[in-house]
Amino acid sequence: MLGGHEDCCELLLEKGAAVLSVDCDGQNPLHTAASSGLPMLSYLLASKSQAATLVKNKAGKSPVDLAADTQRGEVGTAH
């Protein structure tokens, strides 16, 4: 188990959690994982919904943009 994030996320997804849901800033769970430097969680979310990688938040940034901003490139390879 890698910090428990992936297991918890997998369980939530199995129970119907929406990968494309967004918060008040227009960010989906993949935006949060990418900007937090969580590559395995980013990969899991991107593998469940490739469309999530294309969603732009209110600042006009995709999860890939946020990963690049934080110098994390893993989201770009998760497709």
Structure notes:
This protein is mostly helical and 79 residues long. 43% of the residues lie in helices and 0% in strands. The chain contains four helices and no strands. α2 (29-35) packs antiparallel against α3 (39-48) and α2 (29-35) packs parallel to α4. It is globular, with a radius of gyration of 11 Å.
Number of helices: 4
Straight-line distance between termini? 22 Å
Report the order of strands and helices. HHHH
Spans of at least 5 consecutive residues with low confidence: none
Biggest beta-sheet profile: none
Structural class assignment: mainly alpha
Radius of gyration: 11 Å
Average pLDDT level = 85
Oligomer: single chain
Proportion of beta-strand residues? under 5%
Labels describing this entry:
79 residues, mainly alpha, 43% helix, 0% strand
Q: What's this, in brief?
A:
The protein has helices spanning 5-14, 29-35, 39-48, 63-69. Helix content is 43%, strand content 0%. The two termini are 22 Å apart.
Give a topology summary.
Blueprint: H1 5-14, H2 29-35, H3 39-48, H4 63-69
Helix pairs in contact: 1-3, 2-3, 2-4
